[in-house]
Design goal:
This protein is of the alpha+beta class. Helices cover 26% and strands 25% of the residues. The protein has helices at 20-30, 45-51, 65-74, 78-86, 137-152, 206-218; strands spanning 4-7, 40-44, 55-57, 88-95, 98-103, 108-110, 129-131, 157-166, 169-180, 186-187, 203-204, 227-231. The strands form four sheets. The chain has a five-stranded mixed sheet with strand order 1-12-2-8-9. Strands 4-5-6 form a three-stranded antiparallel sheet. A two-stranded antiparallel sheet has the order 3-7.
Length: 255
Amino acid sequence: MTLTITPLAGIPLIRPGDPLADILLDAIHSAKIEVRDGDVLSLAQKIVSKAEGRYKELAEVTPSAEAIALAQESGKDPRFCELILQESSQVLRVRQDVIIVEHKLGFICANAGIDHSNIQFNPEDRLGQVLLLPENPDQSAALIRQRLENELNARLGIQIIDSHGRAWRKGTVGITIGLAGLPGLVDLRGSPDLFERKLEITQVGAADELAAAASLVMGQAAEGIPAVHIHGFPYLLRTGSLKELLRPEKLDLFR
């Protein structure tokens, strides 16, 4: 198996309302990529959020009493804490500079995925803007997929990825927060191993494995590569959703 990940260079800074699918098409054509059935596009969350106008001005946020208390415990700005509360279903852990929540989308993450990085700012503006995650990443991926499939005449998968930490290991990794047209989870239970023994528990987080690989090519800082084309994804494309990857709370041993 060969997996080929090609950066889509030349994507401009995305602004609210920009036609993201059209911008991706231009980047694909500029890179002279031959898109084939089974290929996948991996998109950084930020370009989707930016196109959807998911900015918030901290100066316009009024913190609640709960947000003020959370700010005192975490050392974060109360306005920032208010946005975290608005984007979350529950707060799970708090320590200095870190607030771990269950996001409204269902996954566990730090600070509800709200970020300052790679956002244009005015150094004189002490508060400035922050960027929220897409409101419905699966739907965002589905709309982009529909447009690209129509234009490229190929069956594609689209994933929206973000960088998350993990409770039991250091460092951030790319994970999938939205997908369309590819499996989130691949169930190998019942398949034989090398010695013909049937697998009993193996389920592959295929979309997350792909997100981690794509993230290596995109980078985490000033690389300016917010999208990649992937050829050689080893599983059949099918309808998929983020819910496949979310462990139910009753099976979560860390809560």
